[in-house]
Amino acid sequence: MAFFQWDDKYSVGVARFDQEHKKLIDLTNRFYDAMKEGKGRDVIGPTCRELVNYTKTHFANEELALAKTSYPNLAEHKREHNLFTNQALDLQKKVESGEPVVISSIGNFLKNWLINHIQGTDKTYSKYFS
Known about the structure:
This protein has 4 helices and no strands. By secondary structure, the protein is an all-alpha fold. It has a single domain, classed as Four Helix Bundle (Hemerythrin (Met), subunit A) (Up-down Bundle), CATH 1.20.120.50. It is globular and about 45 Å long.
């Protein structure tokens, strides 16, 4: 069973963004699976890079689409995106510098952040795409 299972309750009602969220969940699951197999240290660097890069792409896509809909909470949404991006970049720097990182906390951080962001902040934009 996957560490983080997609459920329709996570849907934001915009197919493109649901697909992008599923990819972020897949990245989280791939990392968790490698960690369970004792390969966490082998994949943490590439996974962090992929996560940071894909997150930036997803956030840019979301922000551009929201700007076109006159979404009133765009500034706050961008702040949340920037916060997560900075946290992911900090994690990536620690990993690449060889600084000790508690691997299991990374999976939980990603899962909790995605659940809270998708179900909280992202759910508020659904009606602007109707």
